[in-house]
Amino acid sequence: MKEFKVNGVNLQCYPLTAAQRLHNYTIKYSPPQVLCIGSGLYLQSEVDFDVLKQAIYRSYERFDSMRLRFMPDPEDENKVYQYLVPFEDRDIEFVDFSSWKEEDAHDEMRRWTAIPFKRFHSPMNRVVMIKLPDNYNGIYLKVDHMTMDSSSLIGFFRDVLEIYCSLKYGTDMPKEMQSYFKAVEKDLAYEDNSAARKKDEEFWKNEIASSEPMYTDFTGMGRLLTQRRENNNPTQRSAMVISRSPVAAISVYHLEKEPSERLMQFCQDNNVPMASLLLMGLRTVLSKFNDDEKDVSLKTCIARRGTLLEKQSGGTRIHFFPLRTIMEPEMTFLDGIRMIQTEQNKIFRHANFDPIELTMMRNRYWKLSPGNSYESMSLTYQPLSLKNNAQEVPDIPYKSYWYTNGVAGQPLYLTVMHRVEDNGLNFNFEYKVDAVTEHEMEYLYYYLCRVLFRGIEDKDRTIGQILEMI
């Protein structure tokens, strides 16, 4: 921590956390808008926009990370620090799209999302009050990923909604938020050569050295076989998803309410997490696409929000780690899920370790060429939903949107989230358009659903049987 003079005022400034450094690393090699996250929440109801503006300002006060700024170290341009401004006096914009075609309005908000923020000494979010056709009214929110992740976004939307209901209808105010910088201090103390960090480093070194993983591509064996041939290395086990352009798109597939509920009921009946079920489905598809490969790796997202401080301090806390499983065809579907759950629990216990440092350790150990990896895609499951937290307005229809910023830092990233209107599952595939086609996304989603439902209808089916059935 350092003290810098900012606009004539001495402020306490903190280094970036490991989660932030991951994003800061991304923008060095991608267009600046890659960190822009655009989202929207709209209620089919009349909204008092004067009260909504008050609620947004109140939430700014409570949500520290909405007032986060960045600055370069005056003595080292490669170092970035962060600080909080004590209050926000920006006007909250209002845009009336009610006379537009709704899709044109969403296209305009996608355009907003692709406009990067100024990196230093500047607000890192934009909140706009929105009127849409058919009496849908609400908020568009754009944030920089270095300040918030999906948990923070949902928390902010929920906070604004609950404050609005309190101001408008006299319901209880939401509970106080936790201090963002207390969470930062905890992360930085861990990184400062702590015993916990040393233990985690030893764990990951042992994981890396256990044996070399096998690359499994979301389009099949072609990419690996081609690179083996080009490199004259028939035993090559890593590969690169070649992409010359960062241009990206999002394809969203909506799983209906009833089949979504069947997946959730299976998890409840068998006491397994939804994330483990989804990972089991995805790794089985990758196995199918790669000649029934037993050794499958993909990147899994760890939210790192286990404590009250972590849950209620906002900010960005996501770490990505490789999840590797080797499953024999005789293993049952449920036993496969439990294996994944066991592997996830191991990762959870060591999830504070810096993902960038882990990647560098693995690259050095296995002598990987720059850009090569064993994972072709990433998965995030976001369990948070406004549906169960906004009891003040349970019968009002909602719409929620994620807006693409037009670019991506990785070839394929699947985010599975619950819809606010019916708690069904949305499968959001963000992909680089020169590395993945929309047809390939449809194909992947189709097989993912086939695996999931063939598995849950008979949990004792073996992996080999499911691979034959699909």
Strand content: 15-25%
Per CATH, which architecture of the largest domain?
2-Layer Sandwich
What is the number of beta strands?
15
Radius of gyration: 23 Å
Helix count equals: 14
How helical, in percent, are the residues? 25-40%
Summarize, please.
This protein is 39% helix and 23% strand. The chain is an alpha+beta fold and 470 residues long.
Account of the protein in words:
This protein is an alpha+beta fold. It has two domains: 2-184, Chloramphenicol acetyltransferase-like domain (Chloramphenicol Acetyltransferase), CATH 3.30.559.10; 195-469, Chloramphenicol Acetyltransferase (2-Layer Sandwich). It has 14 helices and 15 strands. A six-stranded mixed sheet has the order 9-15-14-12-10-11. Strands 6-7-8-3-13 form a five-stranded mixed sheet, with helices on both faces. Strand 7 (125-132) and strand 8 form a beta hairpin. Helix 6 (195-210) runs parallel beside helix 12 (355-366) and helix 9 (274-289) packs across helix 11 (333-349). It is globular, with a radius of gyration of 23 Å.
Question: Topology of this structure?
Answer:
Blueprint: E1 2-6, E2 9-15, H1 18-26, E3 36-44, H2 49-62, E4 68-73, E5 76-84, E6 93-96, H3 102-113, E7 125-132, E8 136-144, H4 150-169, H5 180-191, H6 195-210, H7 222-230, E9 248-254, H8 257-270, H9 274-289, E10 295-302, H10 308-311, E11 319-326, H11 333-349, H12 355-366, E12 378-382, E13 398-403, E14 412-418, E15 425-432, H13 438-456, H14 463-469
Parallel strand pairs: 6-7, 10-12, 12-14
Antiparallel strand pairs: 1-2, 2-5, 3-8, 3-13, 4-5, 7-8, 9-15, 10-11, 14-15
